[in-house]
């Protein structure tokens, strides 16, 4: 079996731990700490945003370190930082102590998020670059389905401090062994394989040859055709703008999901809803993994953002139990698309050679803007008197993001290579 698929499987495991303990876990921490400690929702939200700011500041250094030293030391260090921060979070006795704890979690998040996993997988694939990245990040759905409900169960059974300590140890024990065993190589050439697997053994053309729609670099395509020129700054700018705003809303919503659901349903029901949302996200990622290499990814991303806008609009207008459940599941179906499609768009439009540099720049902007999501939604909640008006504002932001992504210089971008 091509070793690249073992790399994908390892990244799946890492994503389940990092998304579970950081992204989806933050929703649990927000609800538990604000209710048991009596700290204002906006204060805890600000500490969560600090986590994402730290992670954002690490995007380009992490990509560079993976390129220079390989993925194994970087991802292993990220797991240790994440687990340590989660364990210390249960020991906080004052609101200000949340900030160093979440900053440490942010170090782990920055070393284990989409940029790091994409940089780990990208050297191994060409023809299946969209599918491989999608499958790797699909572990995020496992984090939502399993980790967030288990966190609530552990905290309920053992208390906040012991529950978080057990979760931290379990996360490290789950992620570190495959990192040590699988991620010792920087690319297929190091073990005598070719990009995408068995091309050399089958006598097939080199998998690194240019493909239709691959716009990176210059030179000839198959059949003597010239490779089209690399895109300018405008395509990258639209990706950065649209996904920054969409992820600002998404991270804010997922961070507040347990608190939002618990304000309308019970806490056990809120935990079940988070798991159901994760199942919906898994279904969305499975569909995306099957079709992403055939679809016009900009159009898919815009439709995804429009679906999320409609879901938040429904909760904002009709904040009842059935609407919250249905809208959360609809929103969850699109979560994986928003998380995954930014690197896929950049990879498709700029090519293999330019991917790390181009996406590193876009990812930094996306991460910094989206880091404010938990704080922004928490501040709107406190200022406007609840979640419904805050979600109406978030719905408008998502609608604008969808428009930015597909309208390019007076035309709609709906072709497969865009």
Task: Give short descriptive properties of this protein.
76% helix; disordered C terminus; 2 strands; Growth Hormone, Chain: A; 17 helices; 418 residues; two-stranded antiparallel ribbon; mainly alpha; globular; single chain
Could you walk me through the main structural features you see in this protein, from its secondary elements to its overall organization?
It is a single chain. With 418 residues, the protein is mainly α. The protein has a single domain (3-185, 230-412), classed as Growth Hormone, Chain: A, CATH 1.20.1250. The protein has helices spanning 3-36, 41-57, 59-69, 71-89, 98-112, 114-121, 129-137, 139-158, 160-182, 199-202, 233-255, 257-264, 267-291, 297-317, 321-370, 373-384, 387-406, and strands spanning 407-408, 411-412. Strands 1-2 form a two-stranded antiparallel sheet. Strand 1 (407-408) and strand 2 form a beta hairpin. It is globular and about 60 Å long. Mean pLDDT is 81; it is low at 199-229 and 409-418.
Number of helices: 17
User: Can you identify the CATH class?
Assistant: Mainly Alpha
Largest sheet properties:
2 strands, antiparallel
Strand content: under 5%
Q: Any idea what the CATH architecture is? A: Up-down Bundle
Number of domains: 1
Question: What's the Cα radius of gyration?
Answer: 21 Å
Structural class: mainly alpha
Strand segment count? 2
CATH superfamily membership = MFS general substrate transporter like domains
**Could you say what the CATH topology is called?**
Growth Hormone, Chain: A
Query: Into which percent range does the helicity of residues fall?
Result: over 70%
Q: What is the ordering of alpha helices and beta strands?
A: HHHHHHHHHHHHHHHHHEE
Report how far apart the termini are.
32 Å
Low-confidence residue ranges: 199-229, 409-418
Biggest β-sheet: strands ordered side by side in the sheet: 1-2
Mean pLDDT: 81
């Amino acid at each position: 079996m091509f070793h690249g698929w073992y790399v994908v499987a390892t990244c799946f495991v890492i994503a389940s731990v990092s998304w579970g303990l950081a992204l989806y876990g933050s929703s649990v921490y927000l609800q538990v700490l604000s209710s048991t400690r009596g700290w204002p929702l906006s204060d805890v939200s600000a500490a969560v945003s600090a986590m994402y700011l730290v992670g954002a500041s690490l995007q380009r250094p992490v990509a560079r370190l993976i390129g220079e030293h390989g993925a194994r030391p970087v991802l292993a260090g990220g797991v240790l930082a994440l687990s340590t921060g989660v364990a210390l979070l249960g020991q906080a006795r004052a609101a200000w102590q949340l900030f160093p704890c979440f900053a440490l979690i942010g170090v782990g998040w920055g070393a284990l998020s989409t940029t790091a996993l994409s940089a780990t997988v990208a050297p191994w694939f060409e023809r299946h670059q969209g599918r491989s990245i999608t499958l790797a990040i699909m572990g995020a759905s496992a984090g939502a389905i399993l980790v967030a409900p288990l966190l609530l169960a552990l905290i309920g059974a053992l208390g906040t401090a012991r529950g978080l300590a057990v979760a931290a140890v379990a996360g490290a024990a789950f992620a570190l062994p495959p990192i040590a065993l699988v991620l010792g190589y920087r690319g297929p050439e190091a073990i005598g394989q070719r990009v995408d697997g068995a091309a050399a053994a089958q006598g097939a053309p080199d998998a690194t040859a240019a493909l239709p729609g691959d716009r990176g670099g210059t030179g000839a395509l198959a059949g003597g055709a010239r490779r089209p020129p690399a895109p300018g700054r405008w395509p990258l700018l639209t990706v950065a703008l649209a996904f920054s705003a969409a992820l600002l809303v998404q991270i804010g919503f997922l961070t507040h999901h347990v608190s939002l659901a618990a304000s309308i349903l019970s806490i056990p029901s809120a935990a079940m809803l988070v798991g159901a949302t994760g199942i919906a996200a898994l279904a969305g990622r499975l569909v995306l993994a099957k079709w992403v290499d055939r679809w016009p990814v900009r159009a898919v991303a815009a439709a995804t953002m429009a679906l999320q806008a409609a879901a938040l609009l429904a909760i904002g207008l009709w904040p009842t139990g059935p609407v919250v459940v249905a809208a959360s599941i609809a929103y969850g179906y699109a979560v994986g698309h928003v998380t995954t499609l930014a690197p896929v768009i950049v990879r498709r439009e700029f090519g293999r050679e330019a991917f790390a540099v181009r996406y590193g720049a876009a990812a930094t902007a996306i991460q910094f803007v989206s880091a404010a999501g938990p704080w922004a939604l928490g501040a709107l909640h406190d200022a406007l008197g609840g979640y419904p008006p805050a979600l109406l504002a978030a719905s408008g932001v998502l609608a604008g993001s969808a428009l930015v992504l597909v309208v390019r210089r007076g035309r709609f971008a709906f072709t497969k290579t865009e």
